[in-house]
């Protein structure tokens, strides 16, 4: 066990080229452990000697020893320790830290805890965002840092900051818990930004992920899933075939009042829904869903008005008020006006006659923007198809797979084996 | 009831035209006038007559008619041997018809005693036959027991006995006889799935059947489908019923019933071409329709788009139809369907329709009509939009090009979403994901 000074000297000396770093890595691993942590307090001045960018690996080890030593971090360096950590995260070198990923994750975790303890989540956002990009092996990989980052964004109400991370599609997941947290927090961020369609996607993934036993995150995600479905589509779809059996059996039991809410919504009567919500307000509040539930309530009016556009060309405001169960034609006018402004319906209000004329969707699909949109969609989907095809090919060549299917079918091959694309899209 | 004089005359003429002989001239009960109980019940025989009389008594709400029906039922039951029914009727009459129409305990006891004796005798005979293993005798034995139970109102026992004869049937004539018995009991029990089964069984016998039997089977099948709310199939069966049916199936159904049921179901479920070919131009069914001229008028009006008079006829018939045991629960549905069809057919040829004229044609107010139209549009049965300000209905044809674009974009989005989550799930499974049960609350 070398002394600290010698260790620091090694770090400074051996951070030049990859081979040296490999050697350094070996040394550090040897030196690692509780003994290093015991000297945590003494490490701080040494950290000042090292540069986070050039000596990332060594810095990381020492830093990690400090933060996991269990000592109160606010005592370190007079409360600026957070800054040190943030600095490190921002300026460290990607290759070096990839040699010790779990230590890196520990550091990030501690940062998040510290920031939450100090009740200043916003301080953690910038460093963690950089950290996410650095630790990811590919843009499609999910790391624990994602979930922490999204949590901080939510707490700091910086929803837009979360968007940059959410826009990447995730295809690789190591830890299931990360996925659930990611989907749940991501869904909440999209809800905050009122992008209900994307929120629905993420929550749907959380609800339908394979799980052998129920977890609380999935239950909470399911509750929000019901509410967002009602707002976006007016109904809650039933579980698709690929949902795990555990989820199908148990989720509804844990979200009983939400299921009742959705049946009440389906009946289409505003006053009933309102009374139901009021009587259960306490339980909605305890789940922190009351705001969302109120949005469900107002979405009911919207849905009823939208149904009217399908049936009528013009309709008087009194008739609208009557069929949507509003109190006065003035209310009806306000609702319709708001919906026109939000672009949810196409109509004009004639105040003199008290009539609303509904129009068809003016989109003619002839503009340049529309062509661009379609074109980019096509390209995106073609890329996705290719990816799907390649994954399928890989799996078909996998020896374990061939062994299993070969055994089942006795080695015969039918025409179906040569057909790759999903039939649904024909 | 002073209209009695008129109705039989015209109906008798109609019957002479169509049926040409057969049993007594039965006046058409399904006319607009109030139901003549006696004429109505004279069309039927056996247990269905009793059932119908009792049903009319329960539902009609007019004291005079009720008492008339109960009186006739009482007399008929006295001629039979069903003790339980006797008790029921006596209870219902409740002394209103005088002392002669009360519970006759002496008669009840006598009949019960006779029944016991006969039952013992039949059972002994049957046991005898069973030990002798003569198929034909066993079959006849079971048949007799079945008939006995039927006469005494023990329908499920009768059913079981008839079913038992199946194993001992040797010729197709036996099979047909068994099927007819079973069908009869099942109809009364209300078990219409059995009816359908046995009708198909009877129709599948290798020998060709007597046309009367064929007609009976068709009528029974129609009745079963009607009860199961399969109106289109029921209509088809009824219009295919041969006129040979005549009054031969009076223990189940009268030819007027075939006409009415068939016409109503056809109006509610057939499309225009079927209506023309199978009902209006169908010579066979025309004979039935002659028996109920109002219904014939109704069908012709509907086809000729005289909806006002058609719906008027329907309204007049409604009261009497509600007294029919097989039809009463379907009257509302059938009427609603016919009305909807009329409305849809009315709007089909036009680009724009003035709601005022339409309301007078359908004898309703503009606001009611608007509500009905809105409901039909929401169910996508009419492709139109209502201009509530000017009260005009405009036909609307969806723009194919736009809808195609919309659908394409939507399919693209769904594909993307589904494939992405599928890849994610595949990845999760690939890592042989086993999820630890975490702590209860996060």
From TrEMBL, chain A:
Q: Which residues form the PCI domain?
A: 195-363
Q: Which domain of life is it from?
A: Eukaryota
Where it sits in the cell: the answer is: Cytoplasm; Nucleus
| Keyword vocabulary terms for this entry | Cytoplasm, Nucleus, Signalosome
Q: Which InterPro entries match?
A: COP9_N, CSN3, PCI_dom, WH_DNA-bd_sf
GO terms in the biological process aspect are: ubiquitin-dependent protein catabolic process
| Listed GO CC annotations | COP9 signalosome; cytoplasm
The record ties this protein, via SUPFAM superfamilies, to: Winged helix' DNA-binding domain
List, alphabetically, the SMART domains matched.
PINT
Report the sequence similarity comment from the record. Answer: Belongs to the CSN3 family.
Name listed for the protein in its UniProt record = COP9 signalosome complex subunit 3
From TrEMBL, chain B:
Keywords, A to Z, come to:
Coiled coil, Cytoplasm, Nucleus, Signalosome
Coiled coil found in the keyword field: yes
Where does it reside?
Cytoplasm; Nucleus
Coiled-coil features, chain-numbered ranges? 112-139
Instruction: Please indicate if the UniProt record lists Nucleus as a keyword.
Output: yes
- This protein's major location comes to cytoplasm
Domain named PCI: which ranges?
Answer: 230-400
Q: Which InterPro entries match?
A: CSN1_C, PCI_dom, Rpn7/CSN1, Rpn7_N, WH_DNA-bd_sf
Q: Which GO terms describe its cellular component?
A: COP9 signalosome; cytoplasm
Annotated Pfam families: CSN1_C, PCI, RPN7
Q: Which family does it belong to?
A: Belongs to the CSN1 family.
Record's protein name: PCI domain-containing protein
Taxonomic lineage of the native organism: Eukaryota, Viridiplantae, Streptophyta, Embryophyta, Tracheophyta
């Amino acid at each position: 066990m070398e002394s600290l000074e010698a260790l620091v000297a090694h770090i400074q000396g051996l951070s030049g080229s990859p081979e040296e770093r490999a050697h350094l890595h070996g040394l550090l691993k040897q030196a690692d452990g509780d003994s290093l942590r015991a000297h945590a307090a003494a490490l701080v001045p040494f950290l000042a000697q090292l540069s986070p960018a050039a000596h990332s690996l060594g810095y990381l080890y020492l830093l990690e020893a400090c933060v996991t030593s269990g000592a109160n971090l606010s005592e370190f360096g007079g409360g600026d320790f957070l800054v040190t950590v943030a600095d490190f995260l921002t300026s460290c070198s990607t290759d070096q830290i990839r040699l010790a990923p779990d230590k890196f994750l520990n550091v990030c975790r501690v940062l998040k805890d510290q920031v939450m303890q100090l009740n200043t989540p916003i301080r953690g956002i910038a460093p963690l965002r950089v950290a996410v990009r650095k630790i990811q092996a590919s843009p499609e990989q999910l790391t624990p840092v994602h979930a922490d980052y999204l949590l901080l964004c939510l707490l700091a109400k910086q929803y837009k900051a979360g968007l940059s991370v959410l826009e990447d599609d995730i295809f690789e997941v190591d830890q299931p818990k990360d996925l659930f947290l990611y989907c749940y927090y991501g869904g909440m961020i999209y809800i905050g930004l009122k992008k209900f369609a994307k929120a629905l996607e993420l929550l749907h993934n959380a609800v339908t992920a394979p799980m052998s036993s129920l977890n609380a995150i999935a239950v909470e995600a399911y509750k929000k899933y019901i509410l967002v479905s009602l707002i976006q589509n007016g109904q809650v779809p039933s579980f698709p075939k690929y949902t795990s059996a555990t989820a199908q059996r148990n989720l509804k039991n844990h979200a009983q009042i939400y299921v009742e809410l959705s049946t009440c919504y389906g009946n289409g009567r505003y006053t009933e829904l309102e009374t139901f919500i009021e009587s259960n307000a306490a339980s909605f509040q305890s789940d922190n869903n009351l705001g969302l539930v109120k949005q469900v309530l107002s979405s009911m009016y919207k849905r009823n008005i939208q149904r009217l556009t399908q049936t009528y060309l013009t309709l008087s405001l009194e008739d609208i008020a009557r069929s949507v169960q509003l109190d006065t034609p003035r209310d009806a006018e306000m609702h319709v006006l708001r919906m026109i402004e939000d672009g949810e319906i196409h109509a004009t209000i004639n105040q003199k006659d008290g009539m609303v004329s509904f129009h068809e969707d003016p989109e003619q699909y002839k503009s340049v923007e529309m062509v661009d949109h379609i074109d980019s969609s096509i390209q995106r989907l073609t890329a996705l198809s290719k990816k799907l095809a390649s994954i399928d090919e890989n799996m078909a060549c996998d020896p374990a797979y061939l062994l299993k299917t070969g055994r089942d079918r006795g080695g015969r091959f039918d025409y179906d084996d040569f057909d790759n694309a999903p039939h649904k899209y024909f | 009831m002073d209209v009695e004089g008129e109705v039989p005359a015209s109906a008798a003429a109609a019957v002479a035209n169509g049926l040409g002989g057969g049993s007594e001239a039965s006046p058409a009960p399904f006319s607009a006038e109030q139901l003549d109980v006696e004429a109505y019940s004279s069309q039927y025989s056996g247990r269905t007559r009793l059932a119908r009389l009792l049903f009319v008594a329960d539902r009609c709400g007019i004291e005079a008619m009720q008492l008339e029906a109960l009186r006739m039922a009482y007399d008929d039951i006295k001629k039979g041997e069903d003790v339980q029914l006797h008790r029921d009727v006596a209870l219902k009459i409740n002394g209103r018809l005088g002392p002669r129409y009360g519970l006759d305990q002496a008669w009840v006891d006598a009949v019960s005693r006779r029944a016991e004796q006969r039952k013992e005798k039949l059972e002994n005979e049957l046991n005898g036959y069973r030990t002798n293993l003569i198929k034909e005798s066993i079959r006849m034995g079971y048949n007799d027991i079945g008939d006995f139970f039927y006469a005494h109102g023990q329908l499920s026992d009768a059913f079981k006995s008839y079913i038992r004869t199946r194993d001992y049937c040797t010729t197709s004539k036996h099979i047909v006889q068994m099927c007819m018995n079973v069908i009869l009991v099942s109809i009364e029990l209300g078990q219409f799935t059995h009816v359908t089964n046995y009708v198909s069984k009877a129709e599948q016998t290798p020998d060709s059947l007597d046309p009367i039997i064929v007609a009976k089977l068709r009528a029974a099948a129609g009745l079963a489908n009607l009860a199961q709310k399969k109106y289109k199939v029921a209509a088809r069966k009824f219009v295919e019923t041969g006129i040979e049916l005549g009054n031969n199936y009076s223990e189940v159904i009268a030819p007027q019933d075939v006409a009415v049921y068939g016409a109503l179901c056809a109006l509610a479920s057939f499309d225009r071409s079927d209506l023309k070919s199978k009902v209006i131009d169908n010579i066979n069914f025309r004979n039935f329709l002659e028996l109920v001229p109002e219904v014939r008028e109704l069908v012709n009006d509907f086809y000729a788009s005289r909806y006002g008079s058609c719906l008027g006829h329907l309204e007049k018939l409604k009261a009497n139809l509600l007294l029919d045991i097989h039809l009463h629960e379907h009257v509302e549905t059938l009427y609603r369907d016919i009305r909807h069809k009329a409305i849809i057919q009315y709007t089909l040829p036009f680009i724009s329709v003035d709601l005022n004229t339409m309301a007078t044609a359908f004898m309703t107010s503009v606001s009611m009509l608007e509500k009905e139209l809105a409901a039909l549009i929401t169910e996508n049965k009419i492709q139109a939009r209502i201009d509530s300000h000017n009260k005009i209905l405009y036909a609307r044809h969806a723009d194919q090009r736009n809808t195609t674009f919309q659908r394409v974009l939507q399919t693209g989005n769904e594909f993307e979403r589904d494939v992405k989550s599928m890849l994610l799930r595949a990845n999760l499974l690939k890592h042989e994901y086993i999820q630890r049960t975490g702590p209860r609350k996060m």
